[in-house]
Amino acid sequence: VHLVESGGGLVQPGGSLRLSCVGSGFAFNQYDIRWYRQAPEKEREFVAFISPGGRTSYVNSVEGRFTMSRDSSKNSVYLQMNSLKTEDTAVYYCHASNTYGKGTLVTVSS
Predict the structure, then answer these.
(1) Burial letters 92-109, b for 16+ CB under 10 A, else e
(2) Whole-number mean pLDDT of the chain?
């Protein structure tokens, strides 16, 4: 199982970023996929979920601002993050099949 996240970076408050996660080594398209994040000195927390059929759910703090999607043809999932806030600053991890990727850093700062 191999998961690789990308798309992180530095963005101003109110800005947008799109994270990607590509999976390999397992039947990616048959698995629930989750995004987690870990802010400095905080525990890792759930952010978003997508089922193989495309059903999604989100933590309350990102509801209405983040959108998760998947592209089965590319073994990929995405996290579109809009109206970013400073408190969204964290390392974002993709999770599937009891495995995390190495993460991608999102920094929201003016």
Answers:
(1) bbbbbeeeebebbebebe
(2) 97
